[in-house]
Amino acid sequence: MITCAGIIGAGKSSLTELLANDLGTHAFYEPVKNNPVLPLFYKGNEIAAKKREQGIDSTNPYAFLLQIYFLNKRFDMIKRAMQEDNNVLDRSIYEDAIFMKMNADEGNATDIEWDVYNSLLSNMMEELPYAAHKKRPDLMVMIDVNYDTMIHRIQKRGRKFEQVEADPSLERYYKRLLKYYDDWRENYSESPLMVIDGNRYDFKGNENDKNTVLNMIEERLVELGNLSNRDFLTIKQRREQHG
Question: Most exposed: 26, 32, 83, 119, by fewest CB within 10 Å?
Answer without folding.
Answer: 119
